Structure formats: C-alpha cells, structure tokens
Amino acid sequence: MPTSKSKRGKKYNPNHRLERCAVIMERAVARMPIREDAKRDIEIAAHIALDRLLKGGDKDSLYVLASAIDVAHELAKDPARGVGAEYLADIEAGMAAIVRAKKHGDLTGVWKLSGDDADRVSTALAVHDAQLEIASRELVVDCINVVTARVEGGSKETEFEEMMLQAA
Predict the structure, then answer these.
(1) What is the pTM of this model?
(2) DSSP string, 22-89
C-alpha cells in the first residue's frame, strides 16, 4: 500500500530563490552611498536656495535650505547614525541663522542672508554636503523620512522646529 504524502508547511513557490536574491540585493544597495545623480540633485537644490537667499530670495528658498540643514542635523545628532556628529554645533549655528532670517523676512518681507549668518548657513550646508558623501542611502532616506513625518505631523521634536514656530 502506498504511503501518503505528508502535507508541506508552505506552498511551493518557484520564485523563492529569485525573491530571496532580490531582498539581498535591496539590502546591499541600501548600504551603498547615494547615487551621484541623486546626491547632485539634492546639493543643487540646497545651493540654489542658499544663492537666492544671499541675493535676496523668497520664503520657499528659506524652507528648502531649512529642510537640508534639518536633515544634516538629524544625521549628526543621533549617536547610532553619528554622521558628522563633531559638526553638530556648526549645524545648529546654521539653523539659528535660518531662524533669524525667517524672523527678519516675516517682519520686512525681505528674505536674505548676510554677514555672519550667511557664513554659518554656508558652513552647515558644507557639512550637509560632506554627510551625503559618506552616508548610506538607507540612512539618508531614513533621515529624510523622519524629518518629513515630523513636519507633516506638526511635531515639535527638534530645537529647530521649535525655533521656527517661535519665529512665526
């Protein structure tokens, strides 16, 4: 009498190996640095915003620059990430300069960075650019998602957002 086949725990998946390879590749790609074209696009947007604010820009330029520096702050402040942690004071000085520019812009309608504030923001942006050189894609995307969720949720978790809200 033939023996009965025992039931398998899982249904046969002919694509299991392909799916497993895809997962391994995704993890490997996430650990790689940001693609050059993506990094260039991020840097161009932030540097154009800075250039506009140096010449007399608009509120949108201020927020583009604030977002870039907020991502830099997020990358540097967390010990687990620790990308550029030694430059945290420079980043925070740049954040404070942006807040002052926002206060000035709200009062006068002139959105401009000048003097020491322009230097502070430029330094913070240089740190941001250096962070993009060494941080993995996964880390940068995670920080962007954290900042975006915080902004969309209206959460006041960072000193920067609290300063921006007080300036408003």
Answers:
(1) 0.73
(2) HHHHHHHHHHSBPPHHHHHHHHHHHHHHHHHHHH-B-HHHHHHHHHHHHHHHHHHH-TTT-TTGGGHH
Other beta carbons within 10 Å of 94: 31
- Amino acid, res. 128: H
pLDDT digits (tens, 9 = 90+) for 137-162: 888 888 888 888 887 877 654 556 56
Kindly tell me the number of DSSP H helices and DSSP E strands found in the chain: 7, 0
Q: Residue 119 and residue 140: Cα distance in Å, rounded?
A: 25
Q: What is the C-alpha radius of gyration for the chain, rounded to an integer number of angstroms?
A: 22
Torsion angle in degrees (nearest 10) through CA of 101, 131, 45, 105: -10
pLDDT tens by residue, 44-64: 999 999 999 999 889 999 999
- 130 half-sphere exposure, CB direction, 13 A CA radius: 16
Say how far apart CA 5 and CA 84 lie, in whole Å: 59
156 vs 99: CA distance, rounded Å: 15
Nearest CA-CA partner of 81 in 70, 93, 73: 73
